[in-house]
Design goal:
By secondary structure, this protein is of the alpha/beta class. The chain has eight helices and eight strands, in the order H-H-H-E-H-E-E-H-E-H-E-H-E-E-E-H. The chain folds into two domains: 244 residues, 3-Layer(aba) Sandwich (Rossmann fold); 42 residues, no CATH class. Helix 5 crosses helix 6. Methylates the 2'-O-ribose of nucleotides at positions 32 and 34 of the tRNA anticodon loop of substrate tRNAs. InterPro entries: RNA_methyltr_E_TRM7, RNA_methyltr_RlmE, RNA_MeTrfase_FtsJ_dom, rRNA-MeTfrase_E, SAM-dependent_MTases_sf. Belongs to the class I-like SAM-binding methyltransferase superfamily. RNA methyltransferase RlmE family. TRM7 subfamily.
Length: 320
């Protein structure tokens, strides 16, 4: 079947390449916005763990398309978008990139500098660890990443702002929910139609940022220390808290777990469309190079980054 196999299996992967998105995950943010109107009134947005940049693309296209010549946001303010990641990312129009660590207060300060001292209206994070397949481990690491994103968000988000982040649904979702509710009056766990049913991922949509009185953001203290309410996850019966869950999209939308035909015209041959923008020298690139050239057993194998074409290999980011 060759390179057409993934295009046949995954309609969103195919549509992302046809519409110029860097990854299929762009549709997740688009569907969340359709359900929650995330971009209404947003002039300053932050994309955490942004590489390869599909969510930054969505922010750039949606926010900069409003107003006169696509340069002014609501209220006549200039739209400003900041993307943060440890990895380098190919440039995007209207997006300022920071190659930094979201657990450092200096990164938060740099974000505010780009906003000329103003806080953000919206913070989004589609970051996820390299999964191990051990669900307990993956859920814990993802929870730590989510709370690191929340921690920096408390430094840069304005009161009343919105925070959206990926979460792995598991036994500690209610604990995470209780901690998010400390900072946001509205928290919903949402599953976009483009997110595979077989995946444990979902997204927390946190609206109306309202931290406790006297709360001072502090990067030194981890949020997930199980000290807010140690019995929260053990509540039973009428005292049990049910996390609000919403499936975004309707039955007329594409099913991310279904295989769709390529819908070629009569007599037309399949033509492969390469990814819009592979990641720039990602950490897994050397491993792919070594495997492709049967060098995994060699300790003196050369690094792949300096010489390898940016179009090899096809990035796993497209399958997220």
């Amino acid at each position: 079947m060759g390179r057409s196999s993934k295009d046949k299996r995954d309609i969103y992967y195919r549509l992302a390449k046809e519409e110029g998105w860097r990854a299929r995950s762009a549709f997740k943010l688009l569907q969340l916005d359709h359900e929650f109107n995330l971009f209404t009134g947003v002039n300053r947005a932050v994309d955490l763990c942004a590489a390869p940049g599909s969510w930054s693309q969505v922010l750039s296209r949606k926010l900069r398309a409003r107003g006169e010549k696509g340069e002014k946001g609501d209220g006549g303010e200039e739209v400003k978008i900041v993307a943060v990641d440890l990895q380098a990312m190919a440039p995007l129009p209207g997006v300022t990139q920071i190659q930094g660590d979201i657990t450092k207060v200096s990164t938060a300060q740099e974000i505010i500098r780009h906003f000329e001292g103003q806080p953000a209206d919206l913070v989004v994070c589609d970051g996820a660890p390299d999964v191990t397949g051990l669900h307990d481990v993956d859920e814990y690491i993802q929870a730590q990443l989510l709370l690191a994103a929340l921690n920096i968000t408390t430094h840069v988000l304005k009161p009343g702002g919105t925070f959206v982040a990926k979460i792995f649904r598991g036994k500690d979702v209610t604990l995470l929910y209780s901690q998010l509710k400390i900072f946001f009056s509205g928290v919903t766990c949402a599953k976009p139609r483009s997110s595979r049913n077989s995946s444990i991922e979902a997204f927390v949509v946190c609206q109306n940022y309202s931290p406790p009185d006297g709360y001072v953001p502090n990067m030194s203290n981890p949020l997930l220390d199980h000290s807010y309410d140690v019995d929260f996850n053990q509540l039973e019966g009428p005292n049990r808290v049910i996390v609000p869950f919403l499936a975004c999209g309707d039955l007329s939308a594409f099913d991310s777990d279904r295989t769709y035909p390529l819908q070629l015209d009569d007599g037309k041959q399949y033509q492969y469309t390469p990814p819009t923008q592979p990641p720039i020298c990602p950490p897994y690139q050397q491993a792919c190079h070594l495997r492709k050239n049967n060098l995994l057993s060699r300790e003196d194998a050369p690094s792949a980054c300096p010489s390898q074409s940016p179009h090899e290999p096809e990035p796993p980011a497209e399958s997220t």
